[in-house]
């Protein structure tokens, strides 16, 4: 993350350290920590972190998060200080943008949640809608979340981008969002 770090140990436990002003360490506080603290005792498969929230996928395919609500979807109306289940099952991979989250389900579909002010969730509805939304049914193999933009690669090898393009980060030859 920008202000914190997450690690998964060989036993599947999740540990956090660093800045915690939004609860992004998942330890029940907003206290910064300079020593790693165990957050989840086991069963964690992968993790993603940004400046303001943290995410992890458990072995059962459930998606969990903690920290600032903006990247965690409609279920959250405040900071989450402890790990909270956001999606009950079927999640294969997760990445985080600064205020949004992308994840691939086991069927290859791409989903997002969090802020969509610049279209970083692939929707033309640019309100700060925090609802979980499907971006595409077509199989996706990888994805990345940026500050106010996102990118993903479909199974056919094509690259897709969406969101803010102020600096040309979408790679389409323009600066149009």
In words, what does this structure look like?
- There is one protein chain.
- The protein has strands at 4-8, 14-18, 33-40, 44-49, 53-58, 63-67, 80-87, 91-96, 100-105, 110-114, 133-136, 140-145, 149-154, 159-163.
- Helix content is 0%, strand content 46%.
- The mean pLDDT is 92.
- With 177 residues, the chain is mainly beta.
Query: Uncertain segments of ≥5 residues (pLDDT<50)?
Result: none
**Beta strand %:** over 45%
Report the sheet with the most strands, covering strand number, pairing sense and barrel closure.
4 strands, antiparallel
Distance between the termini: 25 Å
Order of strands side by side in the largest beta sheet? 4-5-6-7
The overall strand count is: 14
The residue fraction in helices comes out at under 10%
Structural class: mainly beta
State Rg.
Answer: 16 Å
Output mean pLDDT.
92
Silhouette: globular
The helix/strand series, from N terminus to C terminus, equals EEEEEEEEEEEEEE
Please give the count of helices.
0
